[in-house]
Design brief:
The protein has one domain: tt1808, chain A (Alpha-Beta Complex), CATH 3.90.1570. Strand 7 and strand 8 form a beta hairpin. It is built from two helices and nine strands, in the order E-E-E-H-E-E-E-H-E-E-E. By secondary structure, the protein is α+β, with helices and mostly antiparallel strands.
């Protein structure tokens, strides 16, 4: 797991994807744990994951919490994190779905550290298939 340090009054954690220390909020802890899970347990390539990826949505700047690129360099998955006290509701799913208007990925995940929801997106038919588990990278 990432290293921790205390700077001024804020605890910080080292983000291996951004290669710098980040303020350790409850949401950031969820992100770091989930990214670690993806890399260690699901074999997602470290080099194909990016945190805080900027996009333009309806002229506004937005940031996707984590984006996975495919071997072709195109976005393949968006992951949205919430602090553990935030329920994974339709509103959270709608937020990540709006990001997908821009990125057009095949997989969406929402996670609050207690629960996660993963779905495969059929872009042509505009449908979602909810999966029972987070897929291994080689199965994407």
């Amino acid at each position: 797991m990432s290293g921790k340090r205390k700077e001024k009054k804020n605890k910080q954690i080292f983000d291996p994807l951004r290669q710098r220390y980040i303020v350790l909020t409850p949401e950031e802890m969820v992100r770091q744990q989930f990214v670690h899970f993806l890399i260690q347990e699901r074999h997602y390539p470290h080099a194909l994951l990016g945190n805080e990826v900027s996009i333009k949505l309806n002229g506004l700047s937005k940031r996707c919490d984590t984006v996975l690129l495919g071997k072709d360099g195109l976005p393949q998955m968006i992951i949205e994190y919430k602090r553990p006290s935030v329920a994974l509701t339709q509103r959270v799913f709608d937020q990540i779905s709006r990001y997908n208007i821009v990125l057009r990925v095949k997989y969406l995940i929402i996670c609050n550290g207690k629960h996660s929801v993963c779905c495969r997106v059929n872009l042509e038919q505009q449908t979602y298939e909810f999966l029972s588990d987070i897929p291994y990278y080689e199965d994407l």
